[in-house]
Amino acid sequence: MTNLTRWAWMMMLSVSLALAASAQRVRIVASFNAESNYVEAPLLQTSDGSFYGTAILGGPYSFGGGVFKLAPNGDLSTLYNFCTKPNCTDGAEPYGGLIQASDGNFYGTTFAGGTGGCSNGVVPGCGTVFRLTPQGALTTLYNFCSKSGCKDGGQPLATLVQAGNGRLYGTTAFERGTVFEITLAGKLATIHHCHGYDGAVPAARDALVESSDGSLYGTTAAGGAHEGGTVFRITPLGKVTTLYDFCAQPGCADGSHLISGLLQTAKGTLFGTTIEGGTHGVGTVFKITTQRSLVTLYSFCSVPPNCPDGAPPKGRLIQAHGRLLGITYSDGVYGGGTIYEITPRGKFTVLHNFCVEPECADGAFPEAGLIQASDGKFYGTTPFGGTNGLGEIFSLEPGDW
């Protein structure tokens, strides 16, 4: 064996062992198929241990998306396929996730479809709010862009949240965007229109965060004083306060453009991520107090140009064992994104590298944030790769790091 052949063999062995070690951290729970695939919002676990989620793609017309259920025994099934009615009047493309409200039913939104007056160019309609029973019966509660000039908003992206007053709250992204409230019976009120200077385009798939004082906290992808997006607080009556204006100019170390929701800890501090800006231009992790004091904890791509720490960050952070967990969409050692942890003081560690190679069964390019389930494990999804090439539902053991 020549030195060159020996070197090549050792390199192949090294890569194979690295891929195997990477896969050990993540365990595949289920593989997506043509019925439901491409998930951008976090999973929801119900009291019986089942997981529910929304997929943007899949169904009879491939682009309508649907609601899926993962039973405790591992069976993955479709609870509802959107765009099964003519002209997709039942909605299409549910980017936001599900919540289970106080009445036991699931509530969510679709980005397109419905009977409203606008269109995203592929599917008619500007989105809906829907109710879905655990048995799969769907009721459309509201059709966006039903009012003249779409004054009621359109194209919702975020998961809904049920506030302490019993009403549901969410955001729309059409034009500059809105914040709305809707009752479980379907009565909708727009409580804020984004003007641009106070933020624009609430694009997070995660829900607004309700604080102990009843206010809701969220993010925008654009707008604000420097056009880099904002963190905002809004009361149920619609009073908006901008907590921070991010910067969209080159060299802005505080980051820019927020497409994920916020995490609020028991002490009231808010944590979030940006997908651009920071030291290396590909996103940050930050913390901000409700008194508007912001600290950048971490800038991604700490070792350019290959970014072994992953970039950009996506999905809401979650807190566990005094640390924060999150995901990045791409880069990392194998190019498919990462799972990372970061302490509230900014100590950063990569827990898992996703992989774009055929040998990697754990999938690639995760977009939805993690959740911690009742068994203590962390669960998430990938929209690509895996057994069928359409993504996976995976779990991460708490002791894996």
Explain what you see.
The chain is mainly beta and about 400 residues long. Helices cover about 5% and strands about 35% of the residues. The chain has 1 helix and 28 strands. The strands form 7 sheets. Strands 1-28-27-26 form a 4-stranded antiparallel sheet. The longest helix has 23 residues, at about 5-25. The radius of gyration is 21 Å and the shape is globular. It starts with a helix and ends in a 5-residue tail after the last strand. The model is unreliable at about 1-25 (pLDDT under 50).
List the helices and strands and how they pair.
Layout: H1 3-25, E1 26-31, E2 44-45, E3 51-55, E4 66-70, E5 76-81, E6 99-100, E7 106-110, E8 128-132, E9 138-143, E10 161-162, E11 168-172, E12 178-182, E13 188-193, E14 209-210, E15 216-220, E16 227-234, E17 240-247, E18 263-264, E19 270-274, E20 284-288, E21 294-299, E22 311-320, E23 323-330, E24 335-342, E25 348-355, E26 371-372, E27 378-382, E28 392-396
Antiparallel strand pairs: 1-28, 2-3, 3-4, 4-5, 6-7, 7-8, 8-9, 10-11, 11-12, 12-13, 14-15, 15-16, 16-17, 18-19, 19-20, 20-21, 22-23, 23-24, 24-25, 26-27, 27-28
List its salient traits:
about 400 residues, mainly beta, four-stranded antiparallel beta sheet, 1 helix, 28 strands
Shape: globular
Largest beta-sheet details: 4 strands, antiparallel
**Element order, helices and strands?**
HEEEEEEEEEEEEEEEEEEEEEEEEEEEE
> How much of the polypeptide forms β-strand, as a percent range?
35-45%
Q: Helical region count?
A: 1
- Measured as a percent range, the helix fraction is under 10%
